[in-house]
């Protein structure tokens, strides 16, 4: 079997998606649908990768009082469960979907404060699982009480072990992880997260692409910026490309679309033989196909691989000139 991808989720969540026909704040809303699924950014990435047939080890911290939905997901999809159990219950995040617009209001809880022992155990686990060139996805927020430099610390360790670090986080944790000695190999901020990191607005595509190029020139091999319904762009030393999203008529939930995008990028990189240069527009195209496929589902699930491949064939990717 090929080398597995490892995903780390320090702050997983049970996502409770509540759909209402038309959201009215400050009023009584009757739900038309309710779903609960195991989530958190790295869990979502692992789930989409497994659906595509990529071997995955999912790790991070899981509250030992409500593990069943996570364990069921891992067992159903053949994901190796390397989560460290900590005291308490994993948080529940509420995703309120207005069916009239598909706008989602997120209410995310802080999560369990882990002990330093649990974080140290995770370091030992990385030593055990990482090989030269492994893809390691560090995704999501840090739980309450964890130092903002935590992702940076794992990124440094992973770099020393020879892994390619894929980071999807925001705020101070992103700020710290972009220190020169921690620099990830690939980052995937959305537009808002990139603006927050830079402390300025990026009013148009030219400004977003220029910001992505600057980060890439600072030493991050691949910078992907997701733009919601406007698509995504990828910049690396071979160039920049923009992918346009498909017009889809069966949108169910945008929650985790960014994670599906990350999973698609990682799946394409995983399929590239060691020493070979990835075909970057194709890497972006598969990421976009995963995101489009996920939008038709609540929860981190992809349809069969044939359907994802059909979506991939419809995605337009165009080079962006500086
Ligand atoms: N409304 C939409 N219509 C079409 N495609 C969409 C829509 N929303 C998201 N996408 C697709 O999903 C990708 C990722 O979405 P987005 O930029 O919202 O990620 P994100 O903010 O990281 O999301 P999350 O944190 O919920 O995972 C986009 O690049 C796009 O391809
Ligand atoms: O608190 P974080 O880690 O930033 O975000 C957590 C979260 O919103 O991200 C996923 C969607 O991307 C959800 O499964 C989960 O609830």
Give a quick summary of the entry.
By secondary structure, the protein is of the alpha/beta class.
Q: Can you walk through the features of this model?
A:
- It contains ten helices and 14 strands.
- By secondary structure, it is of the alpha/beta class.
- The strands form two sheets. A ten-stranded mixed sheet has the order 5-4-1-8-9-10-11-12-13-14, sandwiched between helices. The protein has a four-stranded mixed sheet with strand order 3-2-6-7.
- Strand 12 and strand 13 form a beta hairpin.
- Helix 4 packs parallel to helix 5 and helix 8 packs antiparallel against helix 9.
- It starts with a strand and ends with a strand.
- The mean pLDDT is 96.
- The site of adenosine-5'-triphosphate has 18 residues, from helix 8 and helix 9.
- This is Phosphofructokinase.
- Pfam families: PfkB.
- InterPro entries: 1-PFruKinase, Carboh/pur_kinase_PfkB_CS, PfkB_dom, Ribokinase-like, Tagatose/fructose_Pkinase.
- Keywords: ATP-binding, Kinase, Nucleotide-binding, Transferase.
């Amino acid at each position: 079997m090929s080398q597995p991808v490892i995903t780390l989720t320090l702050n997983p969540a049970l996502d409770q998606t509540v759909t209402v026909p038309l959201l009215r704040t400050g009023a009584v809303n009757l739900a038309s649908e309710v779903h609960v699924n195991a989530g958190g950014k790295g869990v979502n990435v692992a789930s989409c990768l497994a659906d595509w047939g990529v071997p995955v080890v999912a790790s991070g911290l899981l509250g030992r009082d409500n593990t069943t939905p996570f364990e069921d997901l891992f067992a159903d999809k053949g994901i190796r469960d390397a989560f460290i159990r900590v005291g308490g219950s994993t948080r529940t995040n509420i995703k309120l979907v207005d069916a009239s617009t598909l706008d989602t209001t997120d209410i995310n809880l802080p999560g369990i404060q882990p002990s330093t022992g649990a974080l140290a155990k995770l370091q030992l686990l990385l030593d055990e699982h990482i090989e030269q060139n492994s893809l390691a996805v560090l995704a999501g927020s840090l739980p309450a009480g964890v130092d903002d430099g935590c992702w940076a610390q794992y990124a440094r360790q992973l770099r020393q072990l020879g892994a390619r670090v894929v980071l999807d986080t925001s705020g101070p944790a992103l700020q710290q992880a972009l220190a020169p000695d921690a620099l990830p190999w690939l980052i995937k901020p959305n537009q808002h997260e990139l603006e927050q990191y830079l402390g300025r607005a990026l009013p148009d595509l030219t400004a977003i692409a220029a910001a992505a190029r600057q980060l890439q020139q600072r030493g991050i091999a691949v910078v992907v910026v997701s733009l919601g319904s406007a698509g995504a762009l990828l910049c690396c030393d071979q160039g920049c490309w923009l992918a346009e999203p498909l017009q889809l008529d069966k949108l169910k939930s945008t929650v985790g679309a960014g994670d599906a995008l990350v999973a698609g990028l990682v799946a394409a990189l995983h399929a590239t033989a060691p020493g070979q240069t990835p075909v970057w527009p194709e890497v972006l195209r598969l990421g976009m196909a995963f995101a489009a496929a996920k939008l038709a589902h609540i929860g981190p699930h992809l349809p069969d691989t044939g359907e994802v491949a059909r979506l991939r064939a419809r995605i337009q990717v165009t080079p962006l000139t500086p």
